[in-house]
Amino acid sequence: MAFLIRGGRVFDATRREPERADVLVEGNRIAAVGPAFARPAEARVIDAVGALVLPGLINAHTHAHNNLLRGLADRWTLEDLINHAAALNANRTPEDHYLSAAIGAVEMLRTGCTAAYDLFMAVPAPDEAAIEAVVQAYSDVGMRVTLAPAVADVVFYHTVPGLLERLPPDLRATVETLAPAPTDGLLRLCEAAVQRWDGVAGGRVRVHVAPTIPGQCTDAFLAGCARLAREHGVGVHTHLMETKVQAVHALRRWGRTAVAQLEAVGLLGPRFVGAHAIWLTDDDIRRLAETGAAIAHNPASNLKLGSGIAPVRELLDHGVTVGLGTDGSMSSDNQNLFEAMRLAALVGTVRFPHDPARWPDAASVFSMATRAGAQLLGLGDDLGRVAPGCRADLVILRTDSAFLTPLNHPLHALVYAETASDVDTVLVDGRVVFEGGRVLGVDEDSLRRRAQTAADGLRARNRDAWALAARLAPHLGEACRAAVATPFAVNRYAAPVPDPA
């Protein structure tokens, strides 16, 4: 199939004004960009007069499983969220996994996102049927995804300093009966997933490995993930020093930071992506830069969960590639990368009072959501630009709207003002997947009805897990407050840490 996108203004963040040009798509790639040229006989014309033509946005970190139960979290820390993992994610059917992934992919396409790095989870761990359901969901919706089933072989409650000692005997006995998934079984699952699904859907689906949080993984499992990544040439994605609780636990367990430990087991390198990366020390940032590792910045969830403000300026200054993610909808509420761009541009300003030169600028933030995100997915030569030879992942954005009129500075308008309401047409891999207000590959109305039924059923099935989480919550809160009062090399909060006493 060939398309001629005619009469639009092709957006390039390095230029002050977009260039008026046609875009010719042949197969799954951009064949030409330039002044008006004749329509090839077989090409369908897409009228883009008065619109901007953008590269598809790239979500560098999200979680498909979160979409089914979004909106349940209020005033939760990350540790609160993980405490509710069984309540939210246990007892899911393959249909539940499919629906959760599909409605998230639909939301991303509607908001101009064409590719995502998705660390989907299940409790106690995903199985092949769950992975297949998520692969099928992305394939049906028509979105590009790098899927990394997130797994761990250490029970979360053993990773919160001082928690077990604070629990009353009955609760401690209950927690101690919780068994982790077996290390060897998880490694076999990860390898089988790569072997079976990496490269399916015409290459739109890639599969990488994800030891979900270093502190929730044995050293043997971390080393096994490093081996799988080397042997199969795939990437590794983990949640990296997201909270101070995690940072304190790492020092107590290993006597060094999680970044130093990951380097020791061979995980850091050009294919490594660490999400959040808030509680990095100066030495951690140096290690990431020297090994060519990358970071997925998630400003919305960092704020909502109270995790802290990531040192994005320092990472960029050291040459670390930083992509942009929404995180899952349980911790950030939506999958809208336009909102994520605005937050990424704003949240770092308060770290450098009256020093605007150190604030993230619009060009850097737009790059996080496009070219840098492409690098995190391992597709840096293929995505993130509207240029000949690139994959045809494109967004046509109307400009006759309340958010983009007057269009005084297109780059600033996209980063600070656009809400995704102006997305008109989306192409992924040379196929139109969103047009006329609808995602074309699925029945959205049916998906939403089925998703509501599934969410209602899931909450009912997991009542006991909700009750257990409620009993553990006050003890978990006490342990976390004590942990964050521990002196640490950096402070990423917006205020001094209070004494828990």
Topology:
Blueprint: E1 2-10, E2 19-26, E3 29-34, E4 43-47, E5 51-55, E6 57-62, H1 78-83, H2 85-89, H3 94-110, E7 113-118, H4 128-141, E8 144-147, E9 150-151, H5 163-166, H6 169-176, H7 183-197, E10 205-207, E11 210-211, H8 219-232, E12 236-240, H9 244-254, H10 258-264, E13 272-276, H11 282-291, E14 294-297, H12 299-304, H13 312-317, E15 321-324, H14 329-332, H15 337-347, H16 362-368, H17 371-376, E16 394-398, H18 410-417, E17 423-428, E18 431-435, E19 438-439, H19 444-461, H20 463-484
Parallel strand pairs: 1-4, 1-5, 6-7, 7-8, 8-10, 9-11, 12-13, 13-14, 14-15
Antiparallel strand pairs: 1-2, 2-3, 5-16, 16-17, 17-18, 18-19
Write a brief structural summary.
The chain has 501 residues and is an alpha/beta fold. It is built from 20 helices and 19 strands. The mean pLDDT is 96.
Word description of this protein:
By secondary structure, this protein is α/β, with parallel strands linked by helices. The protein has a domain at 57-391: Alpha-Beta Barrel (TIM Barrel). It contains 20 helices and 19 strands. The chain has helices spanning 78-83, 85-89, 94-110, 128-141, 163-166, 169-176, 183-197, 219-232, 244-254, 258-264, 282-291, 299-304, 312-317, 329-332, 337-347, 362-368, 371-376, 410-417, 444-461, 463-484; strands spanning 2-10, 19-26, 29-34, 43-47, 51-55, 57-62, 113-118, 144-147, 150-151, 205-207, 210-211, 236-240, 272-276, 294-297, 321-324, 394-398, 423-428, 431-435, 438-439. Strands 1, 2, 3, 4, 5, 16, 17, 18 and 19 form a 9-stranded mixed beta sheet that branches. A 4-stranded parallel beta sheet has the order 6-7-8-10. Strands 12-13-14-15 form a 4-stranded parallel beta sheet. The longest helix is centred in the C-terminal third of the chain and has 22 residues, at 463-484.
